[in-house]
């Protein structure tokens, strides 16, 4: 086939594919007279080609808008995830649970981050990396094995699901250290956020402290703000705090303390009783800037209360109350009234003596006459 044959074939194909629009143009724009088209005024309206072009442009704009919307959504913060041990780290995540940013809330957290770039990492991977770093640098160990996980999101139900998923993952990760995980799904509270900022702690830690303080009126927020998460976990467990939305896995380590059994033994030995058959109660507490054990028990008619230093085992204070002695105190009040009666009688005697003295004076005056 020659070049001419190819050109002719292409020409014929184009002519077959190209519609004849001359007649349409005449019908639309003018009338033919003697081979000349007389153009009529143009009627307003869009040609099919222009309509198709407009539709295509709208479609492009729609796709562009959708892409822009998704991009903005991926950059918007959907939830905050906070990890507290003593290091405190806050992660901002998007709706796809990808990390947008990480903030170290204290100096220990800077050590934990160790120049890691967690941006665009899935939150599950990021949390496991941070917990691994805490194990590596010795912030999670047998004497302090508790991790606090807090999730605050726009959708509370999603936050709860994420809380439980991450808590299970952390629990498996620190199981080698016999770890404990406290987890909570939070909602925004402006007043609590201000308290967290004032005491330079995370919002999650502030929420946990508030839950403990609300059920133990003798404890102060500012005191507990200084405690580690493991110490807070011991108080939470020992004092049986029931906080809505707070879930716990594993047991907080008390390896750094003498333990409840030893605290009770020290108190019983000091009281000089065996404790057999006695009703006893031992709770971890915080008083005077230190962790203590509150020990209470009774023996026969006596009740005992001890405060034992949780680290040294020293007796800080103790009280002993005797039911019989309390009755005696009431009886002693009656004796005081009897004493008052005796005092009144003595006053009468003194008055009588004065009368006798006056009579003697009268006799002496008579003798002088």
Ends apart, CA distance between termini: 185 Å
The percent range for strand residues is: 15-25%
Structural class: alpha+beta
Can you count the beta strands? 12
Please tally the helical runs, counting DSSP H or I stretches of 4 or more residues.
Answer: 12
Mean pLDDT: 81
Main beta-sheet annotation: 6 strands, mixed
Radius of gyration: 44 Å
Write out the strand line-up for the largest beta sheet, numbering strands in chain order: 5-4-3-6-7-8
Element order: H for helix, E for strand = HHEEHEEEHHEHEHHHHEHEEEEH
Shape: elongated
| Chain oligomer state | single chain
Instruction: Give the uncertain stretches in residue-range form.
Output: 327-350, 365-369
* Residues in helix, %: 40-55%
Short structural summary:
The protein is an alpha+beta fold.
Question: Describe it for me?
Answer:
With 369 residues, the chain is α+β, with helices and mostly antiparallel strands. It is 50% helix and 21% strand. It is built from 12 helices and 12 strands. The chain has helices at residues 3-17, 22-29, 48-75, 107-113, 123-136, 156-173, 190-198, 203-214, 221-224, 229-238, 260-271, 323-368; strands at 30-33, 36-39, 79-84, 88-93, 99-104, 146-153, 180-186, 246-249, 280-287, 290-299, 302-309, 315-322. The strands form 3 sheets. Strands 5-4-3-6-7-8 form a 6-stranded mixed β-sheet, with helices on both faces. Strands 9-10-11-12 form a 4-stranded antiparallel β-sheet. α5 runs parallel beside α6 (156-173), α7 (190-198) crosses α8 and α8 (203-214) packs parallel to α10 (229-238). The longest helix is centred in the last third of the chain and has 46 residues, at 323-368. The radius of gyration is 44 Å and the shape is elongated. The termini are far apart.
